[in-house]
Amino acid sequence: MQFNVFLPKETEHGKVPAVYFLAGLTCTEDNFAQKSGAFGPAAREGLVIICPDTSPRKVNIEGEDDDYDFGSGAGFYINATTPKWSKHYKMYDYIVNELPSVVAELPIDPKRVSISGHSMSVSAFAPIANPTNCPWGQKAFSGYLGEDNKEAWKEHDACELLSSTVDKTAKLDVLVDVGTSDNFLEKQLLLPNLEKAFKENGHDGQLKLRYQQGYDHSYYFISTFIDDHIRHHAKYLK
Ligand SMILES: N[C@@H](CCC(=O)N[C@@H](CSC=O)C(=O)NCC(=O)O)C(=O)O
């Protein structure tokens, strides 16, 4: 697996906080690194940025490169349990355990780490907020977890997690930006469901959902608002 890491100058003198950025469908470890404009703000705030790939590559599964929204470039950051995919597609373990143990060799403070992403993840750019109810999520979860394994689907759905797992008394501060001209806004992202889940589970006012007029789903959109997101993470990490 390949990944990119940005190290600010503060790492010359000790361990600093880090943000993982989970890129979206079709991306490699390079898209966010090359197109988001995140490194200037990260240098200002003294944050490490870690950019993982979005799936295993060239693992010889039949059809792995056939679709842009499933298989290569579309691991959905979950551990597949269906026999065809489960040997290699363990992206949840990779992000949560394996990659942190690899980057532990770098000057990163493991107690001050946060996570952000685009589209295929939640927090904070154009997230697929309720994947169990949209075509991208249903295709990915059927293929990786099994069509009948709906309970496992819920473990990877922000709306479901707000009702089942997140402490109702927790004080959340979630920043989400999405463009009003995003092609995927209505059919795939389902952000009104996220707003509803925040309200219904005692987190009213704890989601900052900003609809950015005229922006689409691209990295031009991300690069325009990345500074706010780096500041948002720095507020808690520093
Ligand atoms: N090819 C597809 C759309 C693919 C797309 O928009 N990918 C986005 C992420 S979408 C959700 O995860 C992306 O980041 N692409 C790479 C880039 O550098 O822009 C289609 O045509 O519909």
UniProtKB/TrEMBL annotation:
Keyword Oxidoreductase annotated: no
Enzyme Commission code: 3.1.2.12
Subcellular location: Cytoplasm
Single Gene Ontology MF annotation: carboxylic ester hydrolase activity
Extent of the signal sequence: none
GO cellular component: cytosol
Residues of the active site: 119, 182, 217
Entry-linked Gene3D superfamilies: alpha/beta hydrolase
Keywords from the named record: Cytoplasm, Hydrolase, Serine esterase
Main location: cytoplasm
One Pfam match: Esterase
Alphabetical list of InterPro entries matching this protein: AB_hydrolase_fold, Esterase-like, S-formylglutathione_hydrol
Catalysed conversion reaction: S-formylglutathione + H2O = formate + glutathione + H(+)
EC class: hydrolase
Domain of life according to the entry: Eukaryota
Gene Ontology BP terms: formaldehyde catabolic process
Function: Serine hydrolase involved in the detoxification of formaldehyde.
UniProt similarity note: Belongs to the esterase D family.
Protein's name according to its UniProt entry: S-formylglutathione hydrolase
Organism: Bifiguratus adelaidae
